[in-house]
Every structure is written in C-alpha cells, then in structure tokens.
Amino acid sequence: MEDGFFMLAEVGQFALILALMTALAQAVLPMLGAVRGDAALMAFGRTAAPLQALLILISFVLLMLCFAQSDFSVALVSQHSSLTQPLAYRISATWGNHEGSMLLWVLILAVYGAGIALYGDNLRPSLQARVLSVQAIISVAFLAFSLLTSNPFARLSPAPLDGSELNPLLQDPGLIFHPPLLYLGYVGFSVTFSFAVAALLEGRADAAWARWMRPWVLAAWIPLTCGIALGSFWAYYELGWGGWWFWDPVENASLMPWLLGTALLHSAIVTEKRQALAGWTILLAILAFSLSLIGTFVVRSGILTSVHAFAVDPSRGVFILAMIVGATGGALGLFAWRAPQLKSGALFSGVSREAGLTLNNLFLMAVTSVVFFGTFYPLMMEAVGKKISVGAPYYNLVFVPLSVPLLLLVTVGPMLAWKRDGLAALSAKLKWPALLAVGVFAALGLALGFAQVSAAFGFALGFWLILGGVMVLARRWQGAGGFSARLVRTTPAAVIGMALAHAGLGVTVCGVTAMSSFAESKILVMRIGDSASVGALAVTLDRVGEVAGHNYQAVRAQFTVRQGSSSRPLSSEKRFYPNTRNQTTEAGIGTGWLGNSYIAIGDQQTDAKGPGIVVRIYHHPLVGWIWGGALMMAFGGAASLADRRFRIGAPTRAPAPLPLRPGLVPAE
Asked: Rounded CA gap, 484 and 478, in Å?
C-alpha cells in the first residue's frame, strides 16, 4: 500500500466524529434560540448544517478512495472488493454493503439539511431553526448508529493480499444508481418530517408553511419514483425470472413511503391553496418518514434474506428499531398534544377539489395499510413460530380493488373547483374522458372476448388516466375564443407536471394490464438448431459457447428471434464468479414499443438426444410501458419542482387573466 493512502481511514473516521459533534450542537443551539428568540443561536444552524455535510462528504469520499485503491487493510474493502473487480464496481461497492450504505444515508441526510440552510432564506427564522434542529437530531441518531455499530473504517491486521468480491448480483450498472436514488427518496422525507415537527412545536401550520415544504416533498418523491422503477427494471433483466414486481418485503419497503409521499404531496396542495387539512398534512409527513425508517429496519436488521439485506448483526436492528420508536412515537405524541391547537382552515363542500383530494388520500392510506399488513404479518407470525407466506394472491384480492377507485379519482380531482362544485358541472367536464374510456372498454371487450374483460377494463382505466392528464391541459388552454397560444405560454410548470404525472400513471397501468393478461412463456431444453414458438415469437438456438469476462466465466447461448417478417439476434449468459462461487443470469432482451422478447438460459443438460441447455422464453407485451410511465411521472414531478412559484423568494409577474368560456375553471 502507498504511504499516501495509509491514513485515509483514520481521517475519514475523525471526520465522522467531528460531524457527530457538529450535529449535536446543531440539534441543541438553534432550537434553544427559537425558544428564547435569540437570533444568533438560530443563525448557528445555518452555519452548522453545511459544515456537517462537508465533514460527512469528506468521510464518504475517503471511503470511496479506499475502495478505488483496494486498501484491504480496511475490513469493509476486504469484505466487498477484490483486485479482479472492475473499477466501476469497486467504487459502487462503497454503498453496496451495510456500513457504506449507512454512510451514504447520513451524507444525503446532511446534504438535505445543508439545502435547508442555504436555500431557506425566506423561511421564518424560528421555523428554519427548528427544522434544522430536528434534522440534526436525526443526523445524531444515524451518525451514532454508524460509529457505534456500523463503523465503515474498521481496520484489519494483517491486511489480506486480496479481498472478497462484491455480491455478483450487485455488479450491474443499474445497482450503481438504484440505492442512491432510493436513499434520496427515503431521506428526503426526513425534511418533511422536520417541517412537520417544527410546525407542531410552533403551533403554526399555515399556507406559507405548506408552500415551503411542498418542494421538499417533490425532491423526495421524484428520486424515490425513479429508484423504484430502476429497481423493478433491474430485477426484470438481471434475475432472469422475467417478472417486474414480486411483492417482496424489500420491494414493499420502498413502495409504502412512495404511496404516503404521494398522499402528502396532494394534502400539501390543499393546505397551501385553501389552508385546510393542515393536521392531516402533518400526520402524513410523520408517517411517510416513519415508513422510510421502517424500510431501513426491514433491510438492515437481518430479519430478511435478500440481496439488499446486508446486515446480519441483530444489535443493528435493535438500534434502528429504537430510532423508529423514538422518532415516530415522539412525533405522534407531539401531534396528539399540539394538533388540536392548529387552525382547521377553510371549509369546503362534499363536491370540491379539497374533498376529492381528501378522498384520494384516504384510498392511498388504505392501500398503504394493505401493503404494510401483507409485509409484516408473516414476520410477526414467524416471531411466534408460525411460517406463512403472503404473495400475489393476497395483493390481487385486496390491493387491486382498492386501487381502482383510487385511479378513477386521479382524473376526477383536477376537474373539480376549489371550495364548491356541482355534480352537473363535474359531469360536463368529465364527459369526453368518460365517453372515450367507455369506448375503449367496449371495443377491447368485443375484440378480446368475455374471458379478457378485466384486461379491457385495465386498458380503459389506463386511457382514463391519460385522457385526464390531456384534459387538464386542454381546459387550461381554452380561452373565450378557443385555443389560446398565450395561455399555453403562461401555463405554470406545475400544471404541466401534474398532467404529465397523471398520464404517466395511465401508461404504467396499461403496461401492467398487458403483462398481467397477455404475457406468454415456455421452458424447454433446446439443442443447437432447435426452434420454439411462444406467441408471435419464433426462437432458434444458433450456438452455445464459453466466454470469459473481467472476473467471471460464462456460458453464452446465441439465438435468432423472429416476429412476423423481422428478425434479430439475442444472446443470454449464465455467469459464474470463481471468487465468490456465485452464479448470475444475464437475460437476452429484445425491446420494442409493443413488447419485449426475453430469453434466459439455465443449466446444460445431456440426455439420449444429446447435449442441450434449459431455455426460458417469454413474450412480454407492453412491458416497457411500466417503466416508461414511471419516468413520465418522475418528469412530471421535476416539472412541478421547476415551477417558479415554488422557488421561495423568486418573484413572478402574473399575466393579465384571459376570459374563459362559461363553466371553465382554471386548473391549479
């Protein structure tokens, strides 16, 4: 080892200790200043938060350098990296393990805190001080967790000449970006949690508070959406089983905060626009972050066996469980004490946008509860000695029926007027989306037959959502004289973002419907020259051979896939990693707008007919729409986040209103 790199671990450890001390000061002094009205103490948080982020960044970069330089005297590097591992995966191994991933967690937590300090000039000083203090309390807990139970810089003596390899399943480009995106989402909800607790401490949760918090909700929701989609896509192409969602507890751990984060986003809109549902918004902010912590507990406690479940030390799970109980219990106790003192806000009728968004949130809470119960009930039964499994049949029976009215409401909500609307006016606004969706259902029902009526309904529901997004913009762009280019130019980015996100949800629903109803597969033993048909696909095995990668050996099978008059080559591999004695499957995937051809190979076999290889062939119609729709939702969130109205302190000049057709209400 070069002398210049010998002290990296010690410097990284020292930086973490300094960060913990800074976080302790940040947790106490600004809060004390807010209570006393001391401007100097309140201002301390604005200095401490960036300093804390800088110290943790130094620590994280030094750990990354230890991995890049293959410093096997660091136990973490020795356990998750080797000399044969490509550089990109040596670097990504920094967060491809328990200790490194928790260091990434606290880094993102500190960066969010620094963002509040640097870009929160328009926040009330007392509110900003309390938010930064609560954020620092969370940092103290996680920094202590990292230093006391998950030290990433522990040394080995003597240092081995080579290390163990990173889990081969994690040696993939998708897994380089998947955990950081999820953490940006998980940890992002810490900011909304801090805003909620600060509002309870101040006894004030008004429209300005909701407006300040809403961009932070989006800042968490966008990367969490991307992270979930990327994780689903990785499982699809890497695990070789051809599925896009398995209702695995680790998958559910990210879905639950996303669902409540979506509810929080809509509730914050009501609080901002109408100063209503403030208590509900605070409760959702608390629960969304609590579910993020629970997801961390599920993955880090060792109670699950998963490629993501890095921890095996029960003491770590106990530590995280204590943090969950402390954060959630303390915040809910504060909510029970202070929430009744908050102003209830403006009243609204049963037919209004406020009512629609409230009903939407109730369904989101219901489906979150379904996922929570399905995830943790087997774990609770296992704790008392009973093993049960909760899988797709449970979710199909309970989750899907609750999702249908929720998706119907997604299009209804934006069509409603604030405060009060009428059923006749609402029917007129929904006439064309409803007629077109019913037309899609009828046409597909006749074409597919009664046996596929659920598929016809799923596609109609997807079109209902897409048309709802289109109608939001169409209504916005209609002036008294018809289509108005000026109204197009002056449409707020948040309105475009909402329309894009709702349409993206519809695209995902169409993809899920097609995969659930029309996916076809076949498993067989093939020999060179053999052909097989699956749906519209005709697959021929051309050759089988061995190839060598950077740190693996593989059996590669090459195929020709024909669909109609077109053909394409595809190859699939079965990889073996000698260092860890692990195998992975690299599926051959032919992508297209209307679907994918998907081929995965298994073990080689020899029988009376000669040598062959196990082949799994799938035809996946519209599967790409699932992830394309998720990206549309994320882009919609990004467009909303870019809205000038959400940039605190950014002035905007409102154009003179144009006359609207009678009965039309501007979309918000």
From this structure: 6
